[in-house]
């Protein structure tokens, strides 16, 4: 989230290294036409919720224990079961974060909410279909007129870098953490998404759930150890109760659910790639209009460079949506909350009861490996050129026309099931998806 200047210079340097300011220059690209990130008017769940607060159709109830947190989660329909707990000092209110006082994160398909014990603010990131991640805070002081305050520059130090694909976005880090919560950088760090092996995940995070003999870095405090991997984390495996590690009663739930963590890791990178496809397509088309005008070409003249730029970002998106290179599981996963059931219950489902939200948790994350974010506003509001290309590539893969190695993890049964689920549940599909032979109409 947003970065405040910490009291220790060494801490600042550590955060810069961990969070990746090296890619900040890319943020300048989306501050200009046609994106105008900083000056464009956002349209996302927070802007709509603020309108309801302002006109009196919604209210936020203040709680003496957690401030506005519970009311914000309820108002934005973010499930409490999505709670994950991170104890590394790698975010806004890092002076409040430690193994004994982890930061709580909650999320839905288009919202991320951060909460610290005794924190000054609730941290919010809303997924805006045209701007990517838009960052807000809500003061934890009771008032008759709560206001979500937007933040830009400080947030983009980390959330507009190479680690977020050069767009305003999110990323998950796995780091080794000492007894007070500082990353031990000499031991290395890992950027995490659904392609990351379990063995690299969850350093600096609490994890509740069972996973058999698979090993991870969650629940681990290294006590100043400076050696690189491997480390002994036997006590951090298959943990279902965190009460011995910190005061769990201070949180809305005593869990940091394993399945919620895995969905969070998939979702953050998917949002980055959706935003990247949006931005690169809009930027390519904008540049093409200017180039055509300067060179006297007719309006609409298509340059090969435009097509290449759009294809590049869309192909990466398609591969991620179809879980290419997903890390394979070697044992059954089981969370400790109702998160998995609540997530799956949201559907939608086809006539056979199948949904892209159905979990596998034995071999891979989802039973039908196509991201549920195909139903999101960020997908539906991709520029027409990008959305048409993504639909075409999805059809080529799912119909079996594309048998390339990148998609070899999809069996004929996988492709057929995903295709049938999408035809039954996804609005806006091109007509050729519903034609018997898939030929363009």
Structural account:
With 441 residues, the protein is an alpha+beta fold. It folds into two domains: 251 residues, no CATH class; 162 residues, no CATH class. The protein contains eleven helices and nine strands. The chain has a seven-stranded antiparallel beta sheet, sandwiched between helices. It has a two-stranded antiparallel sheet with strand order 7-8. A hairpin with a 5-residue loop joins β3 and β4.
Please count the beta strands (DSSP E, at least 2 residues each). 9
Secondary-structure element series: HHHEEEEEEHEEEHHHHHHH
Number of domains: 2
Strand order of the largest sheet: 6-5-4-3-2-1-9
Rounded average pLDDT: 91
Our measurement of the CA-to-CA distance between the termini, rounded to an integer number of angstroms, reads: 46 Å
Give a summary of the structure in a few sentences.
31% of the residues lie in helices and 10% in strands. The protein contains eleven helices and nine strands.
Short descriptors:
441 residues, alpha+beta, two-stranded antiparallel sheet, 11 helices, 31% helix, disordered N terminus
């Amino acid at each position: 989230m947003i970065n405040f200047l910490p009291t220790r210079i060494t801490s600042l340097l550590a955060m810069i290294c961990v969070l990746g300011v090296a890619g900040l220059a890319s943020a300048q690209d989306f501050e200009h036409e046609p994106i105008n990130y900083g000056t464009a008017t956002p349209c996302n769940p927070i802007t709509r919720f603020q309108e309801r607060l302002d006109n009196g159709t919604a209210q936020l109830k203040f709680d003496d224990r957690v401030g506005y947190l519970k009311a914000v989660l309820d108002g934005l329909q973010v499930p409490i079961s999505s709670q994950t707990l991170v104890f590394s000092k790698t975010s806004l209110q890092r002076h409040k974060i430690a193994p004994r006082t982890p930061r709580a994160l909650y999320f839905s398909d288009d919202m991320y909410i951060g909460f610290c014990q005794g924190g000054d603010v609730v941290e919010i990131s809303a997924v805006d279909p045209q701007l990517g991640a838009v960052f807000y805070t809500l003061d934890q002081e009771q008032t008759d007129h709560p206001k979500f305050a937007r933040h830009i520059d400080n947030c983009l130090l980390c959330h507009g870098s190479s680690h977020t694909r050069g767009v305003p976005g999110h990323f998950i880090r796995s780091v080794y953490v000492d007894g007070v919560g500082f990353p031990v950088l000499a031991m290395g760090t890992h950027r995490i998404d659904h392609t990351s092996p379990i063995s690299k995940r969850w350093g600096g995070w609490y994890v509740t759930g069972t996973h058999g003999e698979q090993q991870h870095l969650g629940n681990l405090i290294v006590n100043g150890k400076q050696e690189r991997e491997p480390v002994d984390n036997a006590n951090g495996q298959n943990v279902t109760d965190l009460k011995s590690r910190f005061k769990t009663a201070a949180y809305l739930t005593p869990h940091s659910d394993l399945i919620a963590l895995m969905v969070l890791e998939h979702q953050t990178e998917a949002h980055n790639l959706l935003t990247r496809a949006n931005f690169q397509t809009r930027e390519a088309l904008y540049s093409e209009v200017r180039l055509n005008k300067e060179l006297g070409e007719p309006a609409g003249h298509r340059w090969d460079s435009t097509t290449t730029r759009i294809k590049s970002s869309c192909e990466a998106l398609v591969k991620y949506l179809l879980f290419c290179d997903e890390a394979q599981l070697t044992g059954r996963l089981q969370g400790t909350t109702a998160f998995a059931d609540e997530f799956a219950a949201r559907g939608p489902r086809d006539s056979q009861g199948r949904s892209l939200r159905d979990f596998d948790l034995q071999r891979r994350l989802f039973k039908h490996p196509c991201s549920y974010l195909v139903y999101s506003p960020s997908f539906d509001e991709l520029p027409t050129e990008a959305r048409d290309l993504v639909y075409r590539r999805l059809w080529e893969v799912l119909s079996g026309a594309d048998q390339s190695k990148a998609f070899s993890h999809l069996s004929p049964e996988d492709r057929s099931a995903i295709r049938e689920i999408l035809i039954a549940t996804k609005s806006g599909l091109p007509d050729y998806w519903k034609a018997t032979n898939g030929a363009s109409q």
